[in-house]
Amino acid sequence: MKTTKSITIIGGGLAGSEASWQAAEQNIHVKLYEMRPQKETGAHQTSDLAELVCSNSLGSNLPDRASGLLKNEIRRMGSMLLEVAEETAVPAGGALAVDRETFAQGVTEKIEQHPNIEIIREEMTEIPDEPTIIASGPLTSDKLSTGIAALTSEEHLYFFDALAPIVHHESINMDIAFRASRYGRNAESGEEKEGDYINCPFNKEEYDTFLNALLEAERIKLHSFELAIEKGVKAGAHHYFEGCLPAEIIAERGEKSLAFGPLRPVGLRDPRTDRRPHAVLQLRQDNIAGDLYNLVGFQTNLKYSEQKRVFRLIPGLENVEFERYGQMHRNTFINSPRLLRPTLQFHKRDNLFFAGQITGVEGYIGNVATGLLAGKNIARLLNNQPLLQLPETTMLGALTHYITHAEEKRFQPMKANFGIIPPLPPSKKKIGKRERAALRAERALRDLEEYLA
Fold first, then answer.
1. Non-local CB neighbours of 410 within 8 Å, separated by 6+ positions
2. Residue 62 CB partners (closer than 8 Å, separation 6+)
3. pLDDT at residue 163, as a whole number
4. Is the predicted pLDDT of residue 138 greater than 90, yes or no?
């Protein structure tokens, strides 16, 4: 059926791809602008849509975890990207991790084949007057950033985001490293299994040697980012996002900060000693073939030569070969509490929506979810239907409420978490953390069903 209603979507990442699909499914013609490969971002490796940059994990699949609940909500609302993610999943315990390449290719193929979507490989430098979704993400181009700054009458907020290295499986020394999931069980079924992660165990001496080398290692200077900060980012802007700190920054916070953070050894035993190690680096499968693994939670901004030297001090990685070194890039987001409504509409213009990381939502599934909501809402606007504003008791409703109602001066990106959902009614019975999360998840899905009905 031919449609005469048309929208523009800027950005072919997770949010823009999901938004395009949702609007197109409602018989809206979508012009999806993606500047790659005509203009590169400095972080992406391909021209595929929905390319994952930082990690290949989309978070927990467990229904009583925040990320698992958000997945259940957008699954109920018909997320295309979640469907592709599940089709391209790789082993990751209780989490949903994907083969980056096949995931992005799968999304690209679906978008390319949709009769209502037109992909335009050009940089969008101005904000159109027609109905538009801006989903340009953390690496928004300078020209578009200038346009958004003019529209919002304020400077952007910046923080630094980082990528973890990816290494070749065959170069990992499995005489030292070992396969295991925490507590030796499949997080979903509870059954004994070999484990989806490769673990590199440190003793105290090895940990201290590595820590000292990490702290002394030379880092890449962030000239362009520092210049941007000096030239006018408002006071209080964040240099780093707390949810994606480089390992060397965590290490500066104290001798035990890594051992209680990304190198925590809980739930693991070194088979060589049958004891819990002092610290453990975990590696997660990065592709379906199983020949690439990423260093979990080990983002970095060390110089490439230093990464090779320092990370080879990790037990089991002494001869490791790198497929990709870690790196840092600028992340951008708008002051959503001042600028957006819970429908993700711009406060001064009904037909302009924002979605994805540029709104201050963090995490892959959060980006997909806001893209889904923006895509559905812009279609509903054009079809003269009431817009969706989900209950705050749902995870997506809580996220959109948070980014549009947080304190403006202290606003920073937020991942899905149960702390932003209203508490349960008082109970005389003492309820544990996991049971409380499960009850909130049940309430969220029940309220979502009632709202959508």
1. 236
2. 68, 94, 187, 188
3. 78
4. no
Q: Give the pLDDT confidence score for residue 193 in this predicted structure.
A: 57
Percentage of residues in the chain having pLDDT higher than 90? 63
In sequence order, what DSSP letters do the residues of 358-411 get, joined into one string? GGTB-SHHHHHHHHHHHHHHHHHHHTT-PPP---TTSHHHHHHHHHHHS-GGG-
Using alpha carbons only, what angle is made at residue 273 by residues 267 and 275, rounded to the nearest 5 degrees? 30
Q: Can you give the pLDDT at residue 120?
A: 95
Residue 351 has a CB neighbour count (10 Å cut-off) of 16
Q: Which fold has domain 6-156+334-439?
A: FAD/NAD(P)-binding domain (3.50.50)
- 């990490």: which residue's tokens? 214
Residue type, 145: S
Does the pLDDT at position 60 exceed 70? Answer: yes
The string of pLDDT tens digits covering residues 365-412 is: 999 999 999 999 999 999 999 999 999 999 999 999 999 998 887 677
The residue extents of the domains of the chain are 6-156+334-439, 163-330
Residue listed under structure tokens 């965590």: 250
Provide the 10 A C-beta neighbour count for residue 281: 27
DSSP state, residue 17: H
Residue type, 16: G
CA 232 to chain centre: 27
Place of tokens 């790789």: 90
